[in-house]
Amino acid sequence: GAGVSQSPSNKVTEKGKDVELRCDPISGHTALYWYRQSLGQGLEFLIYFQGNSAPDKSGLPSDRFSAERTGGSVSTLTIQRTQQEDSAVYLCASSLGGSSGNTIYFGEGSWLTVV
Amino acid sequence: AQSVTQLGSHVSVSEGALVLLRCNYSSSVPPYLFWYVQYPNQGLQLLLKYTTGATLVKGINGFEAEFKKSETSFHLTKPSAHMSDAAEYFCAVIPFGNEKLTFGTGTRLTIIP
User: Is B11 on the interface with A (CB under 8 A)?
Assistant: First the structure.
């Protein structure tokens, strides 16, 4: 597709289970971001990948959260031992990178509900 | 650390009236500035951005914003509101030489018929 693709679009999981959220960025985009959007917390930066550089993980809220990007393209955000406070929309975004002025394009998000 | 402040979490305007959504940033060096819009149950869509050059930036759907360095502001305006403008609007910044996009808390715009 032409845009940033995320899956699943909706996920309901039981507390304590692990979940994986997938992001397929726009073809040719070297920069990839994950954000979390939840009530009362706004849009929180989680992690940023740029090419082959070490990712900026400064926004990950705990060690239960991790992300990887394989082959410089698809990314997976993993949440281990999910908690109810992890319920949120997880947004992935990508850009051409290399310049701070490049537009960052967002996917539709993965809605996670932990019950 | 770079931050961005949006004044007013909720703004209501009448259809046809001026829309003004306020955004201020904190930085000694002007950052790159963005406005995104989020319609219900949808992702974020870029309205407009300021990087360099002309300080008055025009975006989609009739919106525009003016970068004012002296006021550290990047307010979003639209001369005449439409019902379809009802959404949440986010101001965001990327510090110069950085790649991390930091968002304001958002402003929910309601249009009164």
Answer: no
